[in-house]
Predict the structure.
Amino acid sequence: MSEMVQRLIQPLRSRKIRIALVTVLAAFAAEYGLHVDEELLLTIVGVGVSVVLGIALEDAGLKASGRGWLNGRQAGADEHNGRGG
């Protein structure tokens, strides 16, 4: 059972997955729960997509500069978390 829970939780470590999930949930809430206009819905989705693409570009830059993944952690992770590096 623990292995199954770990397999479900593991993708949530990714910032891209978390932001995509929140964007989809916000879009559904706006459309079906809050009944907002189409413009706000498109804004929510557009911001979510922009952030995910920005993170992907950042990851690609880190990989190209040789500061990619080390020991299961991203080399620049402390800088992104505000701890300096």
